[in-house]
Amino acid sequence: MAVQPKTLKEAKAVYSTNPELAWWVFMRVSGLLLVFLVFGHVYMNNIAINVAEVDYAYVAERISKPWVKVYDSFLLVFAMLHGMNGLRYSIEDYTHHPGKRFWLKVLLFTVAGIMLVIGVITLWAFSFEEMGDAIRALPEL
Amino acid sequence: MYKGREGQWAFVLHRISGVALALYLLLHVLDISLVMYGPRVFNAFLGFYHQWPFRIGLILVMAAVVYHAFNGLRIILMDFTEWGTRYHRSLWYGVLAITTAVGIPILIKVVPEILRGA
After folding, report:
1. Interatomic CA distance for residues B20 and B68, integer angstroms
2. Residues of B with CB under 8 A from a CB of A
3. Max CA-CA distance within chain A?
4. Rounded CA gap, B63 and B98, in Å?
5. Distance between CA atoms of B8 and B14, rounded to whole angstroms?
6. Is the interface score ipTM higher than 0.85?
7. Got the DSSP string for A109-140?
C-alpha cells in the first residue's frame, strides 16, 4: 500500500482483489458515519458535562439506556473496524519483513477482537438496570 | 501531491492522529469496561484517570478527532468529486481553519475545568 489510489476508478484499477477495494470504500463510508457518531459522543461526555464528573453512577445509568446501547454499539463496531484497518495500513507501510508483518497483524487482530468482545459485553451482557438503584443507594466511599 | 508540501503534511497529520486515535480506542474500551467491577473499583480508577495529565491527554485526543474528521471529509471530497484534487491545498487550509475554530471553544470550556482541579 505504498500509494493510496485517489479516485474510485483508480482504486478499482489498483486493487486486484475485491476485499482491498471493499476496505477502501468502507474507510470512506464508515469515516463519514464516524464524524457524526464521534462528535456526538465527545459532545455528550466531554462538552455538555465536565468529564471529571463522570463516575460509576453516570456510566451505569448511561449504559442502561437502550438508545445508548444501540448508539455505542454502532460507534464501537465502526470505530474498531475503521481504526484497526488504519493500523493495518500503517503496519503494511512501515514493516517490510514478512514475518514481522505477519505477527504484528496477528497481534493487532487478536487485541482488537478481544476489545470488541469486551465492549459488547459491557454494553449488552451486564445488567446495570438491575444493579443501578441498589448501587446508587450505597453510601459514598 | 506529496512532494513535501501541503498534501504531505495533511497525510502525515492524518496518519499520526489516526494511529493515536486507534490506540486510544483500545484503551478506552478497556477503561470503560472496568465499570463492570462495580462502584468501588470503578470510582477509585476514575479518581486516578481524572488527574490533570490525563485531562491534557483528552484534549489531544479531541484535537486528533477534529483534525482527523475534517481531513477525512477532505479525502472523501478528493476521491469522489471531479474538482476535489484540484483544490486539495485550499481544502487543507480549510481543514486547519475549522480545526482551530472548533478547537478554541473546546479549550475555553475544558482548560478552566482542569485549572480548577475539578
Report:
1. 11
2. 1, 15, 18-19, 21-22, 25-26, 29-30, 32-33, 35-36, 38-40, 42-44, 46, 50, 55, 58, 62, 65, 69, 72-73, 75-76, 78-80, 85, 106, 109-110, 113, 118
3. 64
4. 11
5. 10
6. yes
7. HHHHHHHHHHHHHHHHSS-HHHHHHHHHTSPP
How far is residue B82 from each of residues A4, A21, B38, B76, measured CA to CA in Å? 17, 20, 54, 11
CA dist B118 and B116 (Å) reads 5
What confidence category does residue A134 fall into, taking pLDDT thresholds of 50, 70 and 90?
low
- Which pLDDT tens digit goes with each residue over A34-80? 999 999 999 999 999 999 999 998 999 899 899 999 999 999 999 99
Average pLDDT value over all residues in chain B:
94
Q: Shortest Cα distance from B49 to chain A (angstroms)? A: 9
Number of H helices, E strands in chain B: 4, 0
pTM score of the predicted model: 0.88
**Cell numbers describing residue B109:** 470550556
Please provide the DSSP assignment of B99-114 as one string. HHHHHHHHHHHHHHHH
B49-to-A122, B18, B25, B56, B107 alpha-carbon distances in Å: 19, 22, 15, 11, 19
Q: How far apart are CA A75 and CA B108, in angstroms?
A: 27
B76 close to A32: Cβ distance less than 8 angstroms: yes
| pLDDT reported for residue A139 | 60
